[in-house]
What we know:
The complex is a heterodimer.
Chain A: H1 3-7, E1 9-10, E2 12-15, H2 19-27, E3 35-38, E4 50-51, H3 53-62, E5 78-80, E6 86-88, E7 110-117, E8 134-135, E9 141-142, H4 146-153, E10 162-172, E11 181-184, H5 189-194, H6 200-214, H7 219-225, H8 233-241, H9 245-255, H10 264-277, E12 287-290, H11 295-308, E13 312-314, E14 319-321, E15 330-334, E16 339-342, E17 344-348, E18 359-366, E19 386-391, E20 408-413, E21 425-432, H12 437-451, E22 458-466, E23 474-478, E24 481-486, H13 499-511
Parallel strand pairs in A: 1-16, 2-3, 2-17, 3-13, 10-19, 17-24
Antiparallel strand pairs in A: 4-8, 5-6, 7-22, 9-12, 10-11, 10-12, 14-15, 15-16, 18-21, 18-22, 19-20, 20-21, 23-24
Helix pairs in contact in A: 2-11, 2-13, 9-10
Chain B: E1 8-11, E2 16-26, H1 31-41, E3 46-54, E4 57-65, H2 77-80, E5 85-91, H3 97-111, E6 117-123, H4 125-130, H5 139-149, E7 152-155, H6 164-174, E8 193-194, H7 202-205
Parallel strand pairs in B: 2-4, 2-5, 5-6, 6-7
Antiparallel strand pairs in B: 1-2, 3-4
Amino acid sequence: MMESLSEETWDTVMCGTGLSQSLLALALSRSNKRVLHLDANDFYGEHEAALSLQEVDAWARAHADTEDTNQPSNRHVSSENDAGETVAKRTDEEKQTTPLISSGTRSSIFRNAQVWRHPDADGRGLSFPRAYSLALAPQVIYTKSKLLLQLVSSRAYKQVEFLAVGSFFVYSEGDIASGPALARIPNSREDVFSTQSIPARSKRTLMKVLKFVIDYESDEQKSVWQHQADKPLSEFLVENFKLEQNLRDSILAMTLTLDGNITLKDGLAAIHRHLTSIGLFGPGFCAVYPKWGGISEIAQVGCRAGAVGGGTYMLNTPVSMGEPNDSGEITLKLANEVSIRTTAFITSQQICSTTSHTISRLVAIVNETFQSLFETFTEGAPTPAVVVVAFPSGSLPDDAQAEPTVPIYAFVHSSDTGECPAGQSVIYLTMQTTPQSSHLLDTALAALLQATTAPADVLYKLYYEQATSSRQPLTTPQGSATVFEFPSPPLSLAFDDGSLDAVQEAWKLIMKGEVIDDAFMQFEDREGMSDDDDVYD
Amino acid sequence: MASRAGPAASRGMNTRFAQFKLVLLVLRFVKDQFDSYRESTIGAAFLTQTISLDESTTVKFEIWDTAGQERYKSLAPMYYRNANCAVVVYDITQSTSLDKAKAWVKELQRQANENIIIALAGNKLDLVNEQPDKRAVPTAEAEAYANEAGLLFFETSAKTAENVQELFTAIAKKLPLDQVGPRHTRPGQRPGGVSLGPVEGRDTQAGGPCSC
């Protein structure tokens, strides 16, 4: 059966089943192109996978390396991947001459992974491994995102269950009497008025800020901020609105800024996105999260569309690149020595860039439901499955260090996400990596449990760090064929529409002159897939 | 558990509807067969089949064809998830095909809900009816295996539809119709979920309720 893979020249061979390649598979699913889609891992989703605990354990072992082997400055080293092949770490200068070898199961994007299990995990309710589905790179998707528009126009959305992202909270240490607390961020006019935690004068200031942001792209407001677009948002809020600390923290939390220093330009765009996303798909929420593991689920739906369109899927299949053949096609060798040919090879950049930030992530399974966090405050709002808790810079008790501190964000996922059994929650904490980040994330987790006065046990924890490749896709001619490398996923906590541009670019490359941009991701329902549930009514 | 089994139904006055997810795993061996199969079912990635068990009970199957992803053992978890039943189809004219079916039955038993109902279907009965010497898997052998593994068993013809209705009816009869939960709407619109359907008119709503 393997031999049949060698018989034809594939129009495209894709390596990696992360979101970008999977959306490309979806985009090509009606094109009649011959598509072979591979992944070196034995699971779908690559850097954006959602894993069972058994898979997490194996993944953590494979990504336990410390930074030493992946020093961004070590740009000329070679290392062996798990298939025993030498992986050349290319520099831009080498790009033209060094044969590109792609995708062993190890990548330098993730590192320092460690798993911790409660000594009495089973006794305290940790269920069997497949009862969990932990997302490696969880992101919320704002309802305004182009990704959702593309999923709708391609009809793929019908296979995804979207859940509402609910309230955003800000953590504060509080005083000795009250203890630590979570304050919900009001995000609409009605909400600001009805909130009791903000004094009347502050309410007026906050309303002024929200009003300004909603209208920030008008000429009138641009004259206020454009000349200082690159200064930190927080400075602007103090100077222009005299906004006090706790409200400033709330506004910054809405931007999900990881360094706490988001610029005025980016910050205004982020808050604007947040505010204008509320209500688009229903009352009371601004973002959605796909059930069963977030982005990973969209990747699976993309791959499914690719398979329905005739694409061939193979997991657990590393691939390495050979010399172009006489017809100028790319030759690829699969791990099982089968050799295949293609005119377009689409893969992911695996090498982290020297300028990239690194984020630290802590994923914790907790035997508590945090019901109070999932309350709704708008009539008709769906019960959210995800809420966001921000720990502003310097808000944690033992944070008083000389080094500048950064904020920490916690996404609390209820069992409605399908990521854990009923009665439990998965908490995803993220911060920019500092020498203390492993400790700080643990502190934040403990503070969250204390603030919600939840008598909870942490049953299982996964810590790791995530870097990024260069942010641009790389296109390299090989003979008469082309290699296209997607950038690794961005580190942002909300889905970044920018990553969709590379998908469309790759689509154009494969479709050559055959298409117009208007046709990208625009499909009719497939026969037999249209809504026929009406027979039930 | 994360994969909560999701039979869903509604009860009218005297009628009962139940909907179940069924994974259809068709083992394809030879290239031309694979291709002709694809052509005939392209677009059939999400079929439904409705069975009336009796006057008051209707069972609807949401059929998830694996679309060839099973070919190199690359089935995505979304297929297994919440699947109430599975049909593993082998080819009675291919001698190795029952072995492959057995491997997939094992995989289903490992990955899917523990109470999943699995049916084994030996396809191409029409071909064997016409030319008995084409048979490569004896009925008795497959039936013995099915009994031992606790599977429903039928020999079928996708071409003439022989035994296809019987297969679905037999599965429907084994499903837990009495444990059905709240009424289910279409995918992407389950209770508590968010529907992306009414995407038209988004522009007019821009700003949402917060046009401060």
